[in-house]
Structures are given as structure tokens and as C-alpha cells.
Write a structure and sequence with these properties.
six-stranded mixed beta sheet, Deoxyribonuclease I, Chain A
Length: 257
């Protein structure tokens, strides 16, 4: 089974890229972030024509998350991260697909930091960590994936000295990610490639993709029963080079049946 995560940076504007990638790789489960589409403006029919069922939580102009499944039922569990009834951002959706609990997230960027946006990022991260603790304690097979907007270590960022004050790399952000991992989750990419430079995002500016000046901010965290099934993982880096593509590349894992 192949599971992928992809920050599409606008699901309608980049629909041809998304459909091309789905047709090329045919992942079984896909988590999308940054739909930038209202709930009734999600391209459900085009996704269905590509062979996928879908659930999604949209938001006008910003955010938005979705889970797609190729020929499988999606049992939606939640489309709101618990802990703040006033939070109106569409940043989390959770479902059961083929026996796996899938949490798809788009963690806040947090810039400029310090400031209110950074405070919101850390509070959201704390809520997510609390929710993840409950999922982990359940003992069920769980995959938490998406755009975490965190570069966990120096290895995950091109020229880390330039990012020391950025919300994605500040000590508080990295400490929050480390605290989440301490519950027992496995970072799939780092398990298989502990010392390798791997990026999932390249800015549109300054020829970042051409220079490979990237960041690793899209992550797969696996519970123990999923970790034991992990066969391979990677980044479809070439998709970032397509015309009118997202600034992220799809990331995927492969699990033994």
C-alpha cells in the first residue's frame, strides 16, 4: 500500500498537475493540504474520474485539507482538531481507510516570529500533540501526515544559519516536534534515510529548485504497528519541476500488506 502527502498549493489552479501525478503514481491513499477552495468548490468529479473517493474540509482562499482513497471507502472521524472551539481554520481531517487511521494536517506557518501568528502555531502544535497522544495510546495503526511547517534539524534545511529566526526553524518549533516524536512516533523518512539530505519544498524565488535550496517540512509519523510494515519512502521530487506546479513535492511511504 502506498500512502502519499502533497501540499498542492491550490487544488483547482493546479488540478492538471495533481491529476497527472495521480495517474503517474497511483497512490492508494493521498492526503492533500492547502486546497485554497471553499467546501463546495472542491473538484470532486475530476478526482472521482481519476478513480478516487474523497473527503475534504475547505476554506475560502486559505488552508483546506483532504483525504483521497483509490477504490476504498473513507470513514470520516473528524474534520476539526480538538481543543479550541473558536479555531475556524481548516487544517485537520481524520478518517479510517482500509483499517488505518489517517490524520491529515496543515500545521500553521507561524511567521512572522515572534508574534501572534507564531503563538497560534505553538498553541496549535500543542493541541495536535495532545490529540496525537490519544491516538498513540489507542494502539491502533495510525499515520499522521501532512505539511508540518517544521524543519526538525539542520539536515532538513539548506543553509540553516539563514533560518534561525524563522518560525519553521525556531527552537520552540523544533522542540515541539521533538516532543511529539517522544510519544513514540516514527519519522518515516528519517528512519530509512537518517543522514541523507532530503527536501520536500523549494521556494519559487531565486531558482531554489534549480539550486536544490530546499526544506524538509512534509512528514510521515507512524505508530508502532505501521512502522513495522514500513518498506520504503521517498519524495517525487521531479513533480516540483513541472509547469505551474506547487512549491512542494509529493512525499510517500510504502507499507507491506
Amino acid at each position: 500500500m502506498r500512502i502519499a502527502t502533497y501540499n498542492v498549493n491550490g487544488v483547482n489552479g493546479r488540478l492538471p498537475v495533481l491529476l497527472r501525478w495521480l495517474n503517474e503514481t497511483q497512490p492508494d491513499i493521498v492526503c492533500l493540504q492547502e486546497l485554497k477552495a471553499q467546501q463546495d468548490n472542491f473538484p470532486e468529479q475530476a478526482i472521482a474520474d481519476a478513480g478516487y473517493n474523497a473527503i475534504w474540509h475547505g476554506q475560502k482562499s486559505w488552508n483546506g485539507v483532504a483525504i483521497l482513497a483509490r477504490g476504498m471507502e473513507i470513514q470520516e472521524l473528524s474534520r476539526v482538531l480538538p481543543g479550541d472551539p473558536e479555531d475556524s481554520h481548516s487544517r485537520y481531517i481524520e478518517a479510517i481507510v482500509n483499517g488505518l487511521t489517517i490524520g491529515c494536517l496543515y500545521l500553521p506557518n507561524g511567521n512572522p516570529a515572534p508574534g501572534p501568528k507564531f503563538d497560534y502555531k505553538l498553541k496549535w502544535f500543542e493541541r495536535f500533540t495532545q490529540h496525537a497522544a490519544g491516538l498513540y495510546a489507542s494502539g491502533k495503526p495510525v499515520v499522521l501526515t501532512g505539511d508540518y511547517n517544521v524543519m526538525p534539524t539542520d539536515l532538513d534545511v539548506y543553509k540553516p544559519e539563514r533560518w534561525v529566526d524563522d518560525a519553521l526553524f525556531r527552537p520552540e518549533t523544533r522542540a515541539a516536534y521533538k516532543n511529539l516524536l517522544a510519544q513514540g512516533w516514527t519519522d518515516a523518512i528519517r528512519k530509512l534515510y537518517p543522514d541523507q539530505k532530503i527536501y520536500t519544498f523549494w521556494d519559487y524565488f531565486r531558482n531554489a529548485y534549480g539550486r536544490d535550496a530546499g526544506l524538509r517540512i512534509d512528514h510521515f509519523l507512524l505508530s508502532p504497528t505501521v512502522d513495522s510494515r514500513l518498506k520504503s519512502a521517498g519524495v517525487d521530487r521531479h513533480v516540483r519541476g513541472w509547469e505551474k506546479t506547487s512549491d512542494h513535492a509529493p512525499v510517500w511511504i510504502e507499507l507491506a500488506d
